[in-house]
Amino acid sequence: MTARRIVVISAGLSTPSSSRQLADRLLADSAGLLRERGVEVDAKVFELRDLAHDITNHLLMGFAPPKLEEALDAVASADGLIVVTPIFTTSYAGLFKSFIDVIDPQALTDLPVLIGATGGTPRHSLAIDYAIRPLFTYLHAIPVTTGVFAATGDWGGGGDGVRSLPDRIFRGATEFADLVERTDRSDMLSDPFALDRPMGHLLGGLAGE
């Protein structure tokens, strides 16, 4: 079986970031489960704060700079996507939504998605189901049933009194690994209209690397 490509998107703004910490935990459990089943994993992690200016320029100009284009291409060719965003004012971060806005809508079709979110209080956990999940469903992705929310208190081991954060991470990762193992998105790699070089390079006369 060929390696499964997993892309991780973290929309945390601080350093260190609890969103990145959750993303790393979700990836570790997902990749571990897949490797136990004999499935190799090729993982790429992108921090949106490093791409913030490129995302804005893309929204204004319509062209993706090379670093952003790498992230967009990775998502388009992925077998699974892990996304984690902080919750601001009861919903996902603006930077996270802006990144979703510059993805080719067709790139997410039938793509398994494991959703994670972070916030100061467990009250924000509902944002996964009323804001983030509908976004990916609208784009024809396949979000797994279990979304993983990590409040500040979860990192101390207290959890939400129902299921600990490690348990929730493992449950979401298990559902995600099941979908990724069965996913075949090889056709996403063959685009008869694909360009040999980025459009910005062609228009600007820049030499491809």
From TrEMBL:
NCBIfam families: LLM_duo_CE1759. Pfam families: FMN_red (PF03358). The keyword Zinc does not apply. The keyword Oxidoreductase applies. This is NADPH-dependent FMN reductase. Residues 5-155 form the NADPH-dependent FMN reductase-like domain. Keywords: Flavoprotein, FMN, Oxidoreductase. It comes from the Bacteria. One of its GO terms (molecular function) is oxidoreductase activity. The lineage of its organism: Bacteria, Bacillati, Actinomycetota, Actinomycetes, Micrococcales.
